[in-house]
Amino acid sequence: MSDSSWIDRIDHAGGVVELRMNNGPVNTLTSDALFGLRDCIEQLSNDQTVRAIVLSSPFKVLSAGLNIKEARTFDSAQQDAIVRGLNEGFLALYACPKPLICAINGTAIAGGLFFVLTADHRISAPKAKFGLAEVRVGVDFPTGPLEIAKATLSSNNARCLMLRGQSVDAETAKNMGIVDLIVAAEDVLPQALKDAAEFAQIP
Questions:
Q1: Distance CA 183, CA 189 (A)
Q2: How far is it, in rounded angstroms, from Cα 179 to Cα 130?
Q3: Which of 5, 22, 36, 155 is deepest in the core (most CB within 10 A)?
Q4: Hey, is 62 helix, strand or coil?
Q5: Residues facing residue 100 across a β-bridge
Q6: Average of pLDDT values for 12-30?
Q7: What are phi and psi of 25, to 5 degrees?
Q8: pLDDT tens digits for 44-73?
């Protein structure tokens, strides 16, 4: 089942579309939500009037990934569904032919980090945290997210993030190539929209 009701679409000038993730309080991921994300991105990918996409969150967290307590009780069908959702949702983002800009207002941990890694341009608030915490809760990486991490992180940075599961701050993330720009928290979304407008003009 696909559920895109948690994603608010906001159209801006110049073909820029903001996708505001609104599954409070931490944009927890479910299989239905990930399938909805896939469908939303595929629709925008095929819309010739859309020139650039901005991912944003109105909360203090961009996304905390899966609800691990809930995931531990999944039966085999639910496990299959979430793995499929993670693969298809994030691969749709990674394959999106439109410039994808991520406005990182806060923590992006575990599955939530893949909103950042799939983006073409990443703008962060100073207090944002980044990490791949799966090892700390005994969760494996599905093939899609694993390949995205391998493609977008240096082998050494992927090793450090994956093997210890510890988060890093925005400045460290910038030095690791996870973040492109750090601006004041109140400027993250305006800067993302400004940069998206510039990307939108590139033929």
A1: 10
A2: 10
A3: 36
A4: strand
A5: 53
A6: 96
A7: -95, -10
A8: 999 999 999 999 999 999 999 987 777 778
* Cβ proximity of 153 and 141 under 8 Å: no
- How much helix, strand and coil, in percent to the nearest 5, is found in the chain? 45, 20, 35
Q: Are 86 and 112 in contact (CB under 8 A)?
A: no
Q: What tokens appear for 31 in the block?
A: 């299989």
How far is Cα 167 from Cα 107, in angstroms, rounded to an integer?
Answer: 9
**Cα separation, 1 vs 80, whole angstroms:** 13
Closest to 131 measured CA to CA, from 162, 100, 154: 162
Farthest CA pair distance, the chain:
48
Question: CA-to-CA distance for 167 and 126, rounded, in angstroms?
Answer: 14
Distance in angstroms (rounded) separating the CA atoms of residues 36 and 55: 14
Query: CA 177, CA 184: separation in Å to the nearest integer?
Result: 19
143-152 and 155-164 helices cross at what angle (nearest 10)?
130
Model confidence at 1, pLDDT cuts 50, 70, 90, reads confident
Q: Please tell me the predicted confidence (pLDDT) of residue 68.
A: 75
Structure-block tokens of residue 110: 């575990």
Question: Strand 52-56 and strand 61-63: pairing?
Answer: unpaired
- Token look-up 């799966």 returns 134
DSSP 8-state secondary structure symbol assigned to residue 167: -
User: Distance between terminal CA atoms of the chain?
Assistant: 36
